[in-house]
Design brief:
Largest interface: A-B, 42 and 41 residues
CATH superfamily of the largest domain in chain A: Hexapeptide repeat proteins
Radius of gyration of chain A: 20 Å
Number of domains of chain A: 2
Largest sheet of chain A: 11 strands, mixed
Strand content of chain A: 25-35%
Number of strands of chain A: 30
Distance between the termini of chain A: 46 Å
Oligomer: homotrimer
């Protein structure tokens, strides 16, 4: 099966933690650091050098950091200069360009691309085939669904970069386009195939092309628990969440205490 | 040219039929069976183990079956536990996740992804960049065009999986989104960039966001044969179809006889 | 770092110019010609044979031409029979199918696919995840943004191929669908998530699903230079353009003189 050490390239300048498994045909370039117990599957490239490498007379690969317990699936490309927290997860063929900073428990789905210099909080997930434009900012627990595209040029082509921002807990459903510079608040739901053309306040439900606010997100009824609201979803969903088994409010209270003691 | 037997990995537990060609850099994992006269091009992975492989102390790769006369193009990944009938065809970088069952003459285009536990009938084709959600059910002769996304979570995130179903002969044009759990009937045409938000009866033409039924599919006039209808397309298109040269009605009558004799 | 000459395949029938660098795991097939100072990164395939290769008893790979100063990023697949001018650039995993003719300074972004027999002028750029249908024709300085899909079958499935055409300088923003056979004029702006359903005259701004002409492109005001128009963009954007430093009008006048002297 896997991990036969076939055709693997690991730079002598890379630092691998304990119990790191590297798949066949994978390349780990200079100045990559990978945390303990991580799995890098077959055919991956970690520490992919940005453009300067091809033209510079002297070149030093920027540091690339992958936390502990990563699971990076085959054919993914993580550029040099990028950092992922612990429990980083990718699908197949994810691309994360340079100087992207990701928190813990982030996930980048198959064929999704982060174009670089972006920021993702903790527990933020990109599903399959998502495109995150350069300099985008995503909070914690943000989920972006397939074929969503963030854009950042208000009148292409131009020299202006206006990246979108998405607040904590917000869900952006399949096939949405976020226009340059839109700021979406916390705990919003952007419905499938919506074009987000202006800023969206917290807890809004947005639908259509152009996207319109049709009400508070609390108007969406649960299909799981009849008569109840589904949103805010922190109270109705806990699989894999840090509040699993204890509930969101208790977890949040504990987090506040931890932060107070710092 | 190709098939130089460079950097190939074939598990001793895989079974390859007669005249199977395996491309360079390809991996065929445990318990894969490939039918006679199939071509697996370069850089493919057949029998990709699902997540359990990375954590299980003992692991047995589920059986993966690829029928005869397959043409699997380079960089495709077929998960363990999946079955394809004869004449299976992929573009480059197709992904078919675990426990998907596909009939004969199915095709999965370049960069298209089937997320697993899905069912496809015979002669069903996914064009380029299609995403089929977990547990989706597609009938026979269904064609799905580029950038179409099936979704399956009615209010994300949740623990409910409501996958779409698409009936025989239905055509879903480019850039459509199918909302969770929609059932599209037989011989429908879903126009480009439509969001399918509710069930669609047989032989409907659906357009817009949200998608509306604008009439029967028979209202679409042929650009090939002026004054005639184009749909139902079984009467106007036969290239590569089993009724090629004899017509749909005669083929169908023959099929009925064959089924009666069983 | 890169270019270790690991697991490289170069056909003895390929012709490489001076100072061409070939990445690890890359295959260069028969009858490929690559111009001086080009970089082909890791895991690429140049001269990928079309279908005939797999069945033909005798097979000669068509000539594939890549100009000087190309930068082809990892995992890209360029089919045999395709030609790119000088300064050709790709992202990761671009696919350019057979018999596509591209001018100088063209660029095909990550995961973008040109389906073959297409024509691109000079300085034409496909951003990430673009799909260009067979036989499409794009002029000079055309920019196509992520998740844009060109389609070419007016009533699928059929035997008719009606590919879109896009005129010089036109910009097609993210998530647009171009219906079969539409002809978009020069210097148009197609807004995000627009479905282009009919021909578009020069200098139009098109918005919506179905796409409607909402005015001349000159009505879009600059966010960079308040009070000014942004379009025609040749007067407001010059980074990487041949008129950089001298202005569009002067460059155009020089081009006319050069053409007159031919």
């Amino acid at each position: 099966m896997k991990f036969n050490n076939r055709n693997v390239f690991i730079s002598p300048k890379a630092k691998l933690g304990n119990n790191v498994r590297i798949g066949d045909n994978t390349a780990i370039y200079d100045n990559v650091e990978i945390g303990d117990d991580s799995v890098i599957c077959d055919n991956c490239v970690i520490g992919e050098p940005p453009n300067a490498y091809y033209s510079a007379k002297t070149y030093e690969n920027p540091k690339t950091i992958i936390g502990r317990n990563a699971m990076i699936r085959s054919y993914s490309i993580i550029y040099a200069g990028t950092q992922a927290g612990d429990h980083f997860n990718t699908g197949h063929r994810a691309i994360v360009r340079e100087n992207t900073i990701m928190g813990h428990y982030c996930s980048v789905g198959s064929q999704s691309i982060i174009q670089g210099n972006a920021t993702l909080g903790n527990y933020t997930r990109l599903h399959t085939n998502v495109l995150i434009a350069t300099k985008s900012i995503l909070g914690d627990f943000v989920y972006i669904y397939p074929f969503v595209c963030f854009s950042n040029d208000p009148h292409p082509p131009s020299d202006i970069v206006l990246a979108p921002e998405v607040g904590d807990f917000t869900q952006v459903a399949v096939h949405c386009a976020l226009l340059p510079g839109v700021k979406i608040g916390k705990m919003c739901l952007i419905a499938a195939n919506t074009t987000v053309v202006r800023d969206v306040p917290d807890e809004s439900l947005v639908v259509g092309n152009p996207g319109k606010i049709v009400g508070p997100v609390s108007m969406v009824k649960s299909k799981e628990f009849p008569g109840q609201n589904h949103y805010p979803w922190m109270y109705t969903f806990e699989r894999g969440m840090p509040w699993e088994g204890i509930g969101y409010d208790k977890w949040k209270a504990e987090q506040s205490k931890i932060n107070d003691n710092k």
